[in-house]
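We now fix the convention by which a protein and its fold are recorded. The integers have meaning only within a learned vocabulary of local backbone shapes. The record below shows the convention in full.
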Amino acid sequence: MAAGDEVGYDAVRYTRCNNNPSQEAVAAKLAALEGTEAALVLSSGMAAISSTLLTLLKAGDHMLIQRAAYGGTYELVHHQLVGLGIGATMIDIAATADSWQPLLQPNTKVIYVEAISNPLMEVPDLPAVVAFAKQHGLTSVIDATFATPI
């Protein structure tokens, strides 16, 4: 650092701040592979899922989640988020998107699916999920654990 440079919390290179050079390099590469402006590197899939859902939802909100979601995600959504006042309704991803409409609530904010579900390996119609989300003003969250670009 040059003399006179201000040293603030954000300037500290600390792994939990998600700003060390290795994390930044991996995030930049993942963003390039995914064709997006940015990526965030976290310590686990559940850290990514938790961070995403806790960013998008607050007490009083509701989400739709596929029935065959990963067990850890099921636990988070149906046991932890419920304690924070966030509701969830399961959807059958093998059914048409029209069947999800009656499950919407005025406070529904998110639809969550896995690109390939774990462990049942179900594959949703992702364009239909995204179209449904756009049609109803929802944020689509797609866990691509088994379908990464690498």
About this structure: The chain is about 30% helix and 15% strand. The first strand starts at residue 62 and ends at 66. The helical segments are 21-34, 45-56, 71-80, 126-135.
